[in-house]
Structures are given as structure tokens and as C-alpha cells.
């Protein structure tokens, strides 16, 4: 029988906050075989597909008063992690899956593009890809991607002003800060 | 292991910034005490000691510390060595110490030891040589260079010329290098040293750096159009005329006045184009509300424009020789120091934030960069600083030394206020305790940055 860790993000949502990082921390803290029981003020559709990509099945039901309870249960076999070396990957060296998300960070003040990109990467399963549009080459982001074991491909678009980077989530190197 | 792409944090930049700010405070305290110009002559040893505390101790250390961090960002590549900046700093500090001691010896305030100036020569050429080697290798590895990096390259060439002229003078003070061309240069070359330093090294590098930093922090389009390219070309030409033709004329025993006039007109063209670019950067920004650093950089740019107008008026009225001190003061404190303090305010917060919270971004709630600063408090110090600089410049022009010292006191107080704010930012004092140090983040040290090896 699967045990559940309960997480109620309704207070955060009602105060206008963003519970994403708390949810991901809770997911990271789960023991093998353990599930997550989430309480929210709406059905968190984007989260369902993201958790699915991390190897969780879900069961969502509406509670009295319009709130939702979602039980995430780990599938028997998680998706195989891509055991590739981190770093800038030469273009065309292998096929990457289509990006799951496309972030447009061109209108954000530095360092918000970096914060947003790293937060979005936290929910990807190894091997999944996200794309980000930036208004300059993200020199500090690359360092952080390298440390976290992700790989990337990037370059300026033909317009010469938009920098598009594709990042493929890797497995964190041993000893990396949790 | 192959070189990491992107830029790392510069390990010793905080130490450069701390040393620089201490020299600014020292120089301002000396002005309050009535040391050097206007109490003594413009070329008196006391004034020379004071001027080098400002230009070497404050402005050059600030610029070098900033470049060790900023050149890798400009070229999107790693610095050649993240360790060399520490011996570089030690050599420059020792060199500056012996230089000031030498000037005090010339003033009769210390017993004269000719070898002091010889030591200065070795220490400063060693320090700047290391800095040029390190930054030069970083730039060389990143060719072809973008426009801001080309500005920095010209700035670095100018500092090499400035230090070379300085060494020739220093050897002369110590009684060395008395052969004819060098003695001629010692007699006529002072304007070349000043212009290569203030215009070539400090202003031209600041132009290149400000193009990128202002675009970055105001979300303005990057400048790489014809205006910017001509700013670079005209500036290059003006500096080549001053340094090249000026050195030839001066070492032949002639006054380089005509050369300076031609270079000055070329330089004015460069400054006019830069003014146009700077206005574009502010006009085309996507952020309606801009942060304190960009606002205060605008005030500093206004002081550059003011100094340019003052230069034209003084040359046209034949009063340049009489008021050169006020002009140099306005360039050093209104433009260069004003811009430097404004940029420091942002860079310290940004670098500290990246060092401390970079490893945990996206994994846990972190403060924003702006949570590290309290702008309304710092803004008061900045306005006091600029008002005091304006008052001090007017006092110099009007020949009122006591008013100048009072204004210098206000500058000193304002600088101390800004320095206190910078230290608070670096120590994360302004961040609420619940967000200050989440698990996995590391507390920043005051004088060095943690760089994982």
C-alpha cells in the first residue's frame, strides 16, 4: 500500500502566491514508493502532465467548496534517465525530443530570465527539453546548467537579436546541492 | 577539463572594490584637510599624491575590478586567470604606496630616497602588466570582438600608454632617465599622461562598459549601429593623435598644444556621438521605471556633458590654464566617480545575489536582486554626492578654498553613506531573515567571491 505525504497549497494560492517550489520540494523529499496528496483551489492541469512525465499517475477529485484533491502515485518503473554528459552539446549530434515548454524571457529584467528558466527546469524529467527565448547570450546561466548536469544548445536567431536556447534536463551530478 | 562556457564570478573583484572605495574616502578626507590643490599648486607634489590616490587608488582599481568581472560577460568566455588579480592588486597597492611616499619626499615631508621612484616603476609596471596580460589574453581568446569589447581594448591600450608616460616621469623624479628625448617628454608630456589616463583609459572604457550595462539593466536594444562604430573610430583616432603624435612632438622638445587641439576636436565628435547613443539607450528602454543605478548613471552622463561644455568655454576664453584643476575635478568626480558609484551600487548587489543564490535558484524561494538594496536610503546619499561635487567645482572656479573644503566634506559624508550601503548589500543585511540564507546557499564574504573550482 502506498503512503501519501500531504501538502495543502490552498493558503498560498489564496494569498496570491506561487506554490510551485514547495510542491517540487515535497516531490523531491518523497521516499521510494511514496505518493503526494495535494490540496489546491483548482485542478492543476499543467502539474498533472509534468508529474506524469516524472513517472507519477494521478487521481484528481473535486472537494466540497470547489477545492481539489490530487493523489500522485509513483508508477512501478520511472522513465529511464538519460545518462549523457552535461555541457554544450554539438548541434545535430543526436536528436532531442521537441521542447515541452517554450519560455519567452525577452522582456524580463536580468536576472529574472535565469530564475524563470532554472525554475522551469526543476520540473522536467531527465531527457526532457525546454526552450527559452532571451535578448542576449545567457553567460551566467550556462555555468549553472553545467553544475546541475543539464546540456544545452543555443544561438542567435536569424533576426540577430533573439537568443534561443534549448536545454535538456540531465541527471544531477553526485554531490550537487539539492 | 575543457574551459567552461559562459562567465564565472570574478574571485577578487570585491577586494578591488573595497580598496577603491577606501582610497576615494582617503582622497576626500585629504581634500577636507586642505591637502593639495587648491591650497598648493596644481603641479605641487601634494596635489600629485592626492590626484594619484583618486586616479590609481580609486578609479583604476574600481575599473580593473569591474573589468575582471565584466570582460568575461562581454565576450561570453572565461577569464584567462581568476587568481592573477590578487597579486595584481598587491603590486598596484604597493606601487601606489611608494608613489605617494615619493611625492611626499619631493614635498619635503619625508626624507628623500631616490630608489623609492625606482620601486614605484617596477611595482606599477608589474601590476598593470599582469592586469593587461590577463584581460588581454581573455579578449584575444574571444576574437572577433563585439563593439563594447573593442572599446575596452582601446581603453587597455590607453592605460598601457598612461603607465608608460607615468614611468618616464617617475624615473625623472628619481633622477633617472635624463637623456634628451625623455627629458623633453618629462618637460612637455604631462597633458599626454592626463589625457591618456582620464580620456583613454577611464572614459573610453567607461563608454564601452556603459553601453552594455545600460542596455542590460534598462532593457534597451544593444547598440552596434553606425553611431556606435563612429564613436569608436573617432575616439581611437583622437587617442592615437594624443598618444602617438603627442609623444613625438613632446619628445622633440615642442609644446604639443596644436596636437591636443586637433585631438580635442576629434574627441568632441566622439563624445557627441556617445551622447546621441546614451540618449537613445534611455529613450528606447522597455522599462518605464528604472533603478537607482541607471538614474544616477544618467546624472553622471550629464556631468560628462557639463565637463565638455566647460572645456569648450575655457579653451575659447583662454582660461584653460587657470581653471584646468576645476575641469579635471569635474571629470574625475562628477563623471567618472559618479558613474563608478552608480554602477557599483548595482554590480555589488547583482554579483552578491548570483554568488549566494545562484546554486539554489528554482529549487527554493530566493530574494530578488532588488531585495538586497534599499534604494530610497541610498538615493539620498547619491544626490548629496552630486550636489557636493557641483558645489566644489563652482568653489574651485570661483577661487573659494574654504567653500571647496566644506563641499569636500559633504562628498566624503555621502561617499561614506554609499559605502555603508554597499557593505550592507554585500552582507545581505537588507534581506528578510526568512529568505536570507535558504538551505544550499552560501553567505558571501566581504572581500572575495566563492568560485567553485
Work out the strand percent of chain B: under 5%
Spatial strand sequence of the major β-sheet of chain A: 5-8-9-7-6
Got a strand count of chain B?
0
Mean pLDDT rating of chain B: 92
Number of domains of chain A: 2
User: Globular, elongated, flat, extended or rod-shaped: what is the shape of chain B?
Assistant: globular
Structure classification of chain A = alpha/beta
> Gyration radius of chain B, to the nearest Å?
22 Å
Helix content of chain B: over 70%
CATH architectural designation of the largest domain in chain A: 2-Layer Sandwich
Q: What is the 3D shape of chain A? A: globular
Largest sheet of chain A: 5 strands, mixed
| Unreliable stretches of chain B | none
Mean pLDDT of chain A: 79
Mind telling me the C-alpha Rg of chain A? 18 Å
How many angstroms does the end-to-end distance of chain A come to? Answer: 28 Å
Summarize this structure briefly:
Chain A is an alpha/beta fold and 178 residues long. Helices cover 24% and strands 28% of the residues of chain A.
Task: Describe it.
In chain A, 24% of the residues lie in helices and 28% in strands. The model of chain A is unreliable at 78-86 (pLDDT under 50). By secondary structure, chain A is α/β, with parallel strands linked by helices. Chain A has helices at residues 10-14, 20-28, 45-53, 112-122, 139-147, and strands spanning 4-8, 35-40, 56-62, 68-74, 87-88, 101-104, 129-134, 151-156, 163-168. Chain A contains 5 helices and 9 strands, in the order βααβαββββαβαββ. The longest helix of chain A has 11 residues, at 112-122. Chain B has 453 residues and is mainly alpha-helical. Chain B has a domain at 323-429. Chain B has helices spanning 13-32, 45-75, 85-106, 115-140, 147-173, 180-188, 190-218, 226-251, 257-283, 292-316, 320-357, 375-398, 401-426, 433-436.
Amino acid at each position: 500500500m502506498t503512503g501519501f505525504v500531504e501538502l495543502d497549497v490552498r493558503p498560498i494560492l489564496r494569498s496570491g502566491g506561487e506554490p510551485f517550489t514547495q510542491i517540487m520540494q515535497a516531490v523531491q523529499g518523497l521516499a521510494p514508493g511514496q505518493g503526494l496528496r495535494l490540496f489546491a483551489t483548482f485542478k492543476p492541469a499543467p502539474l498533472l502532465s509534468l508529474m506524469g512525465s516524472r513517472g507519477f499517475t494521478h487521481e484528481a477529485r473535486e472537494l466540497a467548496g470547489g477545492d481539489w484533491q490530487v493523489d500522485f502515485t509513483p508508477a512501478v518503473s520511472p522513465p529511464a534517465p538519460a545518462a549523457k554528459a552535461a555541457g554544450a552539446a554539438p548541434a545535430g549530434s543526436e536528436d532531442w525530443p521537441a521542447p515541452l515548454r517554450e519560455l519567452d524571457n525577452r522582456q524580463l529584467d536580468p536576472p529574472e530570465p535565469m530564475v524563470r528558466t532554472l525554475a522551469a527546469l526543476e520540473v522536467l524529467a531527465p531527457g526532457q527539453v525546454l526552450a527559452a527565448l532571451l535578448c542576449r547570450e545567457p553567460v551566467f546561466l550556462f555555468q549553472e546548467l553545467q553544475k546541475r548536469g543539464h546540456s544545452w544548445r543555443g544561438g542567435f536567431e536569424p533576426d540577430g537579436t533573439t537568443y534561443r536556447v534549448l536545454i535538456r534536463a540531465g541527471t544531477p551530478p553526485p554531490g550537487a546541492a539539492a | 577539463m575543457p574551459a567552461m562556457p559562459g562567465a564565472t564570478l570574478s574571485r577578487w573583484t570585491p577586494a578591488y572594490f573595497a580598496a577603491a572605495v577606501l582610497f576615494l574616502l582617503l582622497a576626500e578626507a585629504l581634500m577636507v584637510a586642505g591637502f593639495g590643490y587648491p591650497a598648493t599648486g596644481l603641479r605641487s607634489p601634494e596635489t600629485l599624491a592626492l590626484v594619484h590616490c583618486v586616479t590609481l587608488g580609486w578609479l583604476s582599481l574600481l575599473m580593473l575590478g569591474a573589468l575582471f568581472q565584466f570582460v568575461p560577460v562581454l565576450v561570453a568566455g572565461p577569464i584567462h586567470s581568476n587568481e592573477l588579480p590578487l597579486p595584481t592588486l598587491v603590486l598596484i597597492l604597493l606601487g601606489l604606496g611608494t608613489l605617494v611616499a615619493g611625492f611626499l619626499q619631493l614635498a619635503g615631508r619625508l626624507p628623500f630616497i631616490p630608489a623609492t621612484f625606482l620601486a614605484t616603476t617596477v611595482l606599477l609596471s608589474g601590476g598593470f602588466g599582469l592586469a593587461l596580460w590577463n584581460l588581454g589574453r581573455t579578449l584575444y581568446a574571444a576574437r572577433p570582438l563585439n563593439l563594447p569589447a573593442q572599446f575596452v581594448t582601446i581603453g587597455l591600450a590607453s592605460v598601457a600608454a598612461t603607465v608608460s608616460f607615468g614611468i618616464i616621469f617617475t624615473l625623472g623624479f628619481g633622477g633617472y632617465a635624463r637623456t634628451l628625448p625623455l627629458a623633453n617628454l618629462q618637460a612637455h608630456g604631462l597633458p599626454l599622461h592626463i589625457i591618456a589616463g582620464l580620456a583613454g583609459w577611464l572614459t573610453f572604457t567607461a563608454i564601452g562598459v556603459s553601453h552594455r550595462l545600460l542596455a542590460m539593466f534598462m532593457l534597451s536594444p544593444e547598440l552596434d549601429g553606425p553611431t556606435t562604430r563612429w564613436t569608436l573610430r573617432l575616439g581611437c583616432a583622437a587617442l592615437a593623435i594624443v598618444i602617438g603624435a603627442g609623444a613625438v612632438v613632446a619628445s622633440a622638445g615642442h609644446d604639443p598644444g596644436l596636437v591636443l587641439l586637433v585631438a580635442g576636436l576629434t574627441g568632441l565628435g566622439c563624445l557627441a556621438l556617445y551622447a546621441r547613443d546614451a540618449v537613445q539607450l534611455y529613450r528606447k528602454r522597455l522599462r518605464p521605471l528604472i533603478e537607482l543605478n541607471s538614474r544616477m548613471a544618467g546624472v553622471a552622463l550629464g556631468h560628462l556633458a557639463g565637463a565638455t561644455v566647460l572645456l569648450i568655454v575655457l579653451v575659447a576664453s583662454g582660461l584653460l590654464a587657470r581653471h584646468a584643476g576645476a575641469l579635471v575635478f569635474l571629470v574625475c568626480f562628477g563623471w567618472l566617480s559618479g558613474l563608478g558609484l552608480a554602477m557599483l551600487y548595482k554590480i555589488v548587489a547583482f554579483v552578491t545575489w548570483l554568488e549566494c543564490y545562484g546554486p539554489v535558484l528554482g529549487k527554493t524561494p530566493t530574494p530578488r536582486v532588488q531585495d538586497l538594496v534599499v534604494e530610497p536610503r541610498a538615493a539620498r546619499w547619491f544626490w548629496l554626492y552630486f550636489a557636493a561635487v557641483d558645489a566644489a567645482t563652482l568653489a574651485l572656479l570661483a577661487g573659494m578654498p574654504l567653500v571647496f573644503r566644506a563641499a569636500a566634506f559633504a562628498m566624503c559624508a555621502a561617499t561614506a553613506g554609499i559605502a555603508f550601503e554597499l557593505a550592507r548589500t554585500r552582507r545581505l543585511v537588507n534581506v528578510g531573515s526568512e529568505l536570507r540564507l535558504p538551505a544550499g546557499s552560501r553567505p558571501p564574504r566581504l572581500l572575495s567571491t566563492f568560485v567553485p573550482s
